[in-house]
Design brief:
Elements (H helix, E strand, L loop, with lengths): L1 H35 L3 H5 L8 H31 L10 H25 L1
C-alpha cells in the first residue's frame, strides 16, 4: 500500500510541474502575441459561454421531453397510414401512351429542326 501512495504522490508532483510549465508557456505566448498584436486569436479559441453541469442536465431533460412529445404526436399519423388502404395505382391506356410518345417525338423533331437552321 505504501508503494501506491508514493507513486500517487510522485504523479501529483509531476502534474504540478507540468501545469507550471504550461502556465509559463502560456505567459510567454501571451507576451509574444501582445508584441505582435495578435492577442485576439487566443480569445477566439475559448468557448463563448460556460454552462454548469446542472444547467446542461436540465437542457438535456427538456430536449428529451420535446422529442418524446413529437414522437407521441407522430404515432397516430403513422398508425393511420398503415391502417388505410393503399391508394389505387392508376394505369395509362396504350392509346394514351402512344399520344404522349408521338407528342414527345414531335417536340424532339422541332428541336432538331431548330438546331439545323441555326447551324
Amino acid at each position: 500500500m505504501g508503494n501506491l501512495t508514493n507513486a500517487l504522490q510522485e504523479l501529483r508532483a509531476e502534474r504540478k510541474q507540468a501545469q507550471l510549465q504550461v502556465e509559463t508557456l502560456d505567459q510567454a505566448i501571451s507576451v509574444i502575441e501582445s508584441l505582435n498584436g495578435s492577442a485576439t486569436i487566443q480569445n477566439a479559441n475559448q468557448p463563448t459561454r460556460v454552462i454548469s453541469a446542472a444547467s446542461r442536465r436540465k437542457m438535456a431533460q427538456a430536449q428529451k421531453a420535446r422529442r418524446a412529445m413529437t414522437r407521441e404526436q407522430s404515432q397516430p399519423i403513422a398508425l393511420a397510414k398503415t391502417m388505410a388502404p393503399a391508394p389505387v395505382k392508376r394505369t395509362m391506356s396504350a392509346a394514351a401512351r402512344r399520344k404522349i410518345a408521338a407528342a414527345q417525338r414531335a417536340r424532339w423533331a422541332k428541336l432538331r429542326a431548330g438546331q439545323k437552321k441555326a447551324a
